[in-house]
Structures are given as structure tokens and as C-alpha cells.
Amino acid sequence: MTDVIDPPIELASDGHDEHHDVHHGPTGILKWMTTTDHKIIGLSYTVTSVIMLVIGGLFAEIIRAQLATPNGHLVSLAQYNELFTMHGSVMIYLFAGPFAFGGLANVIVPIQIGAPDMAFPRLNALSYWLYLTGAITMLLGFFTSGGAANFGWVAYAPLSNSLNTPGAGADLWIGGLLLTGFSAIFTGVNLTATIFYLRAPGMTMFRMPIFTWNMLVTAILILLAFPVLTAGLIMLYCDRHFGTHIFSTAGGGVPVLWQHIFWFWGHPEVYILALPFFGMATEIIAVFSKKPVFGYKSMVFATLSIGALSLGVWAHHMFTTGVVLLPFFSIMSLLIAVPTGIKIFNWIGTMWRGELWFSTAMLMALGFLFTFLIGGLTGVYLASPPLDFFTHDTYFVVAHFHSIVMALVLAGMGGLYYWGPKITGYMLNEKLGKAQFWLLFIGTQVFTLPQYILGLDGMPRRVALYIHNPQWKMLNDWSTFGAVLVGISTIIFVINVGYSWKKYPAGDNPWDAQTLEWFTTSPPPHHNFYRLPQIRSERPTWDYNHPEHKSLAHGAGTGVLHEPPLAATVVAVLEHGQEEDGPIAGATE
Amino acid sequence: MRVEAKILLSLGAFFGVMCAVYWNWSLENAGGVMMFAGMLLCFLPGSYYYWWSRRMKARPEDDPNSTQSEGAGVVGSFPSTSIFPFMLGMAAFLVVLALVFGIWFLVPGLALAVWAFLGATAEGRRGGHV
After folding, report:
1. Which residues of A568-586 are buried (b: 16+ CB within 10 A; e: fewer)?
2. A528 with A557, same domain?
3. Over the stretch A48-66, which tens digit does the pLDDT of each residue have?
4. What is the DSSP letter of A508?
């Protein structure tokens, strides 16, 4: 790192440019295949996962078209099973996770903490190749004679055994999941090691941006959860092909064990998906309110406690099996609402009396906040066993988690609009972006809200046909209409990328942002930095650009946080619009 | 280093408490074992970090008042480009296809894997400076 980080006196970077820009290496496709640069790998991840979003979205549109009429004939019942299975699998395994921890995190986290690259660059490249081949493996199922996997994205035993689901599609699903699982584990190792060992001098743990904190907790959760899934998949494969009876009663096995294993991975996975997007929303809201993150330390604590609690809630997906400890899982699930509530409180506190700038990224983050609140609150209902018994496997549950994941899509799109200029060096068109936001936001509500009513009315999930009931038909039509709006918004995004291609140069710091990634050039050079500022708070770039408004709340002098108790802070914010002895609110900026 | 250790140790401690409560209350083994393993998975690196944090002085990134020049020096040696991750990925792909389409896929898969392992190791020794 000799030339990567200079003493702060040498602020002129010209002398070092040519040293870094001259790189004799392979070009073209060979460059892509041999790269170990976290930015190129992260961009590959992002592009691949957005392609997966489009594929999974296409499945969703077909599903909704089928459900637009009670007795639809668009697809056969067997094809419908494949479609909803692969829609869930593609979106969960191949889009949401890799987009967050492989795509944006891969690019942004090392730059945010002032590192030259990820800790294990070649392992990082291997993660991408495993992800890509895993995605191809899973989708190959559509080209086999038996079709793709069709047992639902959860692959419950005994439905997933070789008698009930023969054929290559299911095995390809297992194989693809093994590959992407290892890819996730390697990324988790990489992120943890990078955050623990490659921070720039002065970047103490409690000065890391919230996005990096969230990625750290995500990475730890990946390491706790994904090996369990991998083990479970190997057991499932053995059951299917080697005659073991781990998940079948015939040989003394326990089918519900699969559910335990799957959800012991599956519920932390929900937070593995969600936490990165929480981090993106936090960064965006802080920057576009021109304020530091409100309650930084409580935000970190909330993230850590969501991570801690997430390991003890898995069986709330299994309430109706009748063999799980209801009170324990109900209490733990309800407890998660507390840190999540702290986060929502802090997001609102960050915006409070800030100088709001409603760019596309900010709108996406606000849309996330709203949609996530709906999804989160219905999650609190579902944590209560009596309500869960009533709504289990109905469209209420479908609507609940689609509110959540669509909130994540909103935040992720916000992340693309916010960090896209840093990654590519060019901005996206704001007008098209806002059109995309409104279609995506309204479409999301139009497609999820009717599903809540359908679910309470008793419509089961995973069905291709339903009874002739005018109200159900109307609600399903609204839901389909909303899905079409969401589809159009995605098309607008693709159009926007093409339309804005190399059109609006971004500059180093187009948003007047706060964290370290905005200190370097856009796109960043090989090994990220020509120079680094002194890091004295959690927003070094802001301090450097606005010496008159330095933020000194965190780690001033001693590294001890001098935050007033939460209640006092609230009062202070309400009265003065800023934290008591905390950072200066950007409202006066 | 101390903060990193504390995070992992306190996560592990929380999982330990949760595991004790859950296992004694539910008498269900799968979840109990998995939570216990989760606790160990936090304690293992956590105690390692804690052990080191007692024996080393604060790194520049742990010191809130350090300057950028304190971080100068070589971080490690990495090859700037490498084909072996790609080869290893393709090898894993072939091995997984062997699980589905036929055991003969293992032959090119494992051959490619061995080649990539050897190549990556040799490349790691040659290195390059960052």
C-alpha cells in the first residue's frame, strides 16, 4: 500500500496518477475473466443479479397473468409449479442476496473503509464465478425434459424426495444452490476479513459508515447460516440418490428436520437480504438530508441485535407444524420489532429538520421506508401464533414478504442511483429515475395490498386456479395490474441505463456526500485511493469539504462517544433541530 | 482489535444464553445443536481476536487519533490478475453437473480443480506487491 495511502500533507495527487493508471494486463473478455479487482467483480455481480431480477420478474408477470382470471389457461398446472418455485428461488438466491453482498457491498465496502481491495481478491473472484455458475445451473432445469424444480423455493421434505419430485430439475436446483451457497460463504469471509483488517488509519470500528456496519453483521450471519443450508442440501441429495432416510419416516428419519435446517438458514437469510438494504437506505437518507446519521450508535446496536435475534426465530415459519415451541419463537420474533423500530425512528430522526433533497435515490429510500413499514408491521401480526394459524400459507403471508422484498428492491434501486455514479463515473437521468420510482412505488402497493385482503379472505398461496368469486377476481386483477406497473418500472430502468450511457459525467462527489468512497475519483482508480483525508469521524469526506461544520460527535479526542441519552436527544432535536452536543445539523448549510 | 473481539464474543454469549433457554425449554435437538454450533462459531474467532488484542498495541485503524502516514507500508502481496479463480469456478460447475448428469463430468472437473489449485498456489508464492 506504499503509494495508496499518502501522508495527508501531500494533497496534490498528480504525481501518483501515472503510477497507478499504467497497468499492463490482459484486455477484453480475458480481463474480465482474470480480474481480481473488487470493483470489476462487484460490477459483474450487480449486472448479473439485475439480469436475474429481470428473469425472476418475468416469471412473476407470467404468474400474475395466470391469476388474472380464476380459471386461467396461460400455463399448465405443472408449469405453474415450476414458475413459482423458480420465481422465489431466482429472486431470493440469485438476485436479492448477491445484489447486496456481492454487488454493491463488494464495490462500496472496501472504498468506504479506505482499503485498496478486498482482503482475499482471488477468493472474491471465485465467489463471483461460483455465483454465475450456480445461477446457470439452477436455470438449466428449464432445459431438461422434466422441467425445473417445482417443489416451492423451500423444498419441503417429503415433497422434495426422489419419489415425489424425480428428475434433473430438482437436482440442478440443489446443485445451483450449493454453488451459490459457497459463493455467499466466501463473500462473507472476505467481507469480515476486509472490515476487520483493512481499515484505513483512524477508521475505528465506531467510525465505519452504517452501510459497512450492516455488511459486517450480514457477513457474520452468512457465516452462521449458509453452512447449515449447505449441509442440509447435501443431506437432501443423499436422500434423493444414495438411499439415506434423513428426511423420510420410512427409514426412521424426520421430515420436519428439513424445515428446521432450512429455516435455521432461511430466517437469518431474511436479514442477510434486508440488512444491506437497510444500510443503503441509511446512507442515502443521511446524505440527502445533509445531516449525520441520527443515533449512530443505536443504529449499530440495532443492527447487531437484529443479527443476534435472527438466529432464534426460525421456527416462526413452522408454527403450524405443531411440533415447535410457540412461546419462545413468538417472543423472539416480536423482539425483533424493537431494533427495527429503533432503525425506523433513527431514519426519521435523520430526516428531521434536515435539508431534504428529493433526488431519485432519496425518493427510493423513502419508498423503502414506507413499504418496509407495511411489511414489517404485518410481520408483527404473523409473529403471533393465533394469527399465524389463521393466515399461514395464504396470500396474507405472500403479501407480507412481498412488501418487505419490494421495499428492498426500492432501496436497492436507490443504491444504484446513489452509488452508480461512483461505480461508473456517470449519473443516471433523474427524470426517468423519478418516473421509475413512482411506477415502482405505486405498483408495489397496488400489487401487495389486495393480496393482504385476499389472504385474510382465505385464498391459499401457490395455486394456479381459484374459485369463481367476483371479489377475488377483482382483487387479483388489481394485483396483476400492480405487477404490470412494477414491470414497466423495470423496463424504464433499463431504458434509463441505455439513455444515460456515458452522458452525464458525475465528478468525484455529485451528492455532497459524507463517507470515504466519495473522496476518491469516479470511478475509483486501481486500488481505490490516491490519497486519504484524516479520518476523525464517521463522515471524513464531509469533514474535509466542510471544515466549518466538522462532525465531532464520534471519537473526538478519546474515541469515547459523548452522546446524550436517547430521550434527551429527542428533546434536543425537537427543540433545536440538532443533537445537543452532537454534530451540527446540515440545515444551516 | 478489541471492538472486533467484543462483538463476536458478545454475539456468542447471546447465542449461548438463547441456546440454553431454548434447549431446556423445548427439548428439541436440531435447533439446540445448531444454536450451540453458532455460539462456538462466534467464540472461536472472537477469543482469538481477544487473545491478540491483549498482546498487541492498537493498530492505526484502532487508534482514533492516528494519521494516514501511520498506515503506510505493504499490505500484502497479491497477483493483480489471475485466471485460477475462473478455472476453479468452472471446475466446481463441472463437479456439480456430475451430481446431476453423470459421474463422468467428475473427470474434467477434478482435473481442472487440481490444475487450478496447483496454479493458484504457485501464483500465490510468486506474488506481486500491493
Report:
1. ebbebbeeeebbbebbbbb
2. no
3. 999 999 999 999 999 999 9
4. S
Domain span including residue A58 = 9-532
Residues 6+ apart with CB under 8 A from A408: A96, A100, A273, A274, A277, A368, A372
Partner-chain residue, chosen from A35, A200, A260, that has the shortest CB–CB distance to B30 = A260
Burial of residue A351, with CB atoms counted within 10 A of its CB: 0-12 exposed, 13-18 middle, 19 or more buried: buried
Mutate to test the interface with B, among A30, A36, A180 (most CBs of B within 10 A): A36
The values of phi and psi at residue A427, to 5°, are -80, 160
Regarding whether A574 and A442 lie in a shared domain, the answer is no
A337 CB-near residues (< 8 Å, 6+ apart):
A376, A379, A380, A383
CA pair distance A205, B62, nearest whole angstrom: 7
User: By C-alpha distance, which of A64, A18, A54, A34 is closest to A454?
Assistant: A64
Residue among A8, A26, A174 whose CB faces B81 most closely: A26
| CATH number, residue A423 | 1.20.210.10
- Decide if the complex's ipTM is over 0.90: yes
**A558 in the same domain as A523:** no
Tens of pLDDT, residues B7-51: 999 999 999 999 999 999 999 999 999 999 999 999 999 999 999
C-alpha cell recorded at residue B115: 490444475
Enter the pTM of the model. 0.89
Q: Are residues A515 and A563 in the same domain?
A: no
Q: How far is CA A39 from CA A107, A110, A139, A503, A586, in A?
A: 5, 9, 26, 21, 31
Tell me how far apart the 2 most distant CA atoms of chain B are, in Å.
Answer: 60
